[in-house]
Amino acid sequence: MNATRYLLFAGRLLIGLAFTVSGLRKLAGYSATIDLLLSSKLPFPVPLAYMGGVLVEIGCGVLKITGYSY
Q1: What is the DSSP annotation of 5-69?
Q2: Comparing C-alpha atoms, which of 1, 3, 22, 28 is closest to residue 64?
Q3: For residue 70, is pLDDT > 90?
Q4: Using CB atoms within 10 A as the burial measure, which of 7, 24, 32, 52 is most buried?
């Protein structure tokens, strides 16, 4: 029974880290991310899309690691 608990945590950790690292890479590569968003012709402002993407990826990654979102 304890093994199941640790396996669930390990799964949450791996998935959450993938989201969090992706968000942190967007923060580190600001100009590359902005260029990519500019080339995609989004129907809303690029800075809004950038901040939304970063907040969602980091926020959801941390929530997943802590076990808040099942």
Answers
A1: HHHHHHHHHHHHHHHHHHHHHHHHTHHHHHHHHHHTT-SS-HHHHHHHHHHHHHHHHHHHHHT--
A2: 22
A3: no
A4: 24
User: The tokens of 42 are what?
Assistant: 């989004």
Q: Can you read off the two tokens belonging to residue 51?
A: 């901040």
Identify the three-state secondary structure at position 3: helix
Q: Is residue 13 within 8 Å of residue 62, measured between CB atoms?
A: no
The pair of structure tokens assigned to 20 is 């969090």
Tokens of 16: 């959450």
Would you state the pLDDT for residue 5?
81
One-letter amino acid of 58: I
Domain range summary for the chain, segments of one domain joined by +: 2-66
